């Protein structure tokens, strides 16, 4: 199977920008940013269990990476940058470490490179199983009201939080739970060593108010970019600054 996506045309000779959204998002998530990069052909994908790929499931990161390869080939995308936020960033980093043909570079916003010890993994497994059960059994507006109270979203205003709850509650709880299980940090490998040994450009964006991912960024062998006036969801909170940052990165490559 291949993933659903939305294409936007660019100028000849420019590499593709392939955008991957975060958990409970969809192909629309990056489009405000991507439209400011109109020289580049762009592909916005729906990850498994989300949007137009809502009926697609994966068993883990390897299957996800293989599906991404098949999807890009189906669009005849031979030279591309991967740009991913949060879950999409984790998928992008994992896929890049498989050394896919045609990869020009990876840009990650707020994506975790992986947990480093068994105790952390066990805590995450317990937490994610609790969320999975809630997504399967409870009204989504109630689940997301609690989801966006997690510390990583502390910079959101009440208005921003309410808007996200309304938007994300349009999802299918069962398919979200399946994707959360398949791509939990509890089962994601620690990608730090592979990313350090990479042969592709690796750029990392984080909101200046996102303390957790500011600290994680400092652990990575990547070019780091702090996005002003933003928390964890920087491309939503300050799309103009993120678009300008991406444009600068791409001009220099």
UniProtKB/TrEMBL annotation:
Catalytic activity, as annotated: 5-enolpyruvoyl-6-hydroxy-2-succinyl-cyclohex-3-ene-1-carboxylate = (1R,6R)-6-hydroxy-2-succinyl-cyclohexa-2,4-diene-1-carboxylate + pyruvate
- Task performed by this protein: Catalyzes a proton abstraction reaction that results in 2,5-elimination of pyruvate from 2-succinyl-5-enolpyruvyl-6-hydroxy-3-cyclohexene-1-carboxylate (SEPHCHC) and the formation of 2-succinyl-6-hydroxy-2,4-cyclohexadiene-1-carboxylate (SHCHC).
GO MF entries: 2-succinyl-6-hydroxy-2,4-cyclohexadiene-1-carboxylate synthase activity
Q: What class of enzyme is it?
A: lyase
State the InterPro entries in the record: AB_hydrolase_1, AB_hydrolase_fold, SHCHC_synthase_MenH
Write the protein's name.
2-succinyl-6-hydroxy-2,4-cyclohexadiene-1-carboxylate synthase
- State how it assembles: Monomer.
Supply the EC number(s).
Answer: 4.2.99.20
UniProt pathway annotation: Quinol/quinone metabolism; 1,4-dihydroxy-2-naphthoate biosynthesis; 1,4-dihydroxy-2-naphthoate from chorismate: step 3/7; Quinol/quinone metabolism; menaquinone biosynthesis
- Pfam families per record: Abhydrolase_6
The GO annotation for biological process reads: menaquinone biosynthetic process
Coiled coil regions, renumbered to chain:
none
Q: Which UniProt keywords apply?
A: Lyase, Menaquinone biosynthesis
Q: Provide the AB hydrolase-1 domain boundaries.
A: 17-244
Q: Which Gene3D superfamilies match?
A: alpha/beta hydrolase (3.40.50.1820)
Family, similarity comment: Belongs to the AB hydrolase superfamily. MenH family.
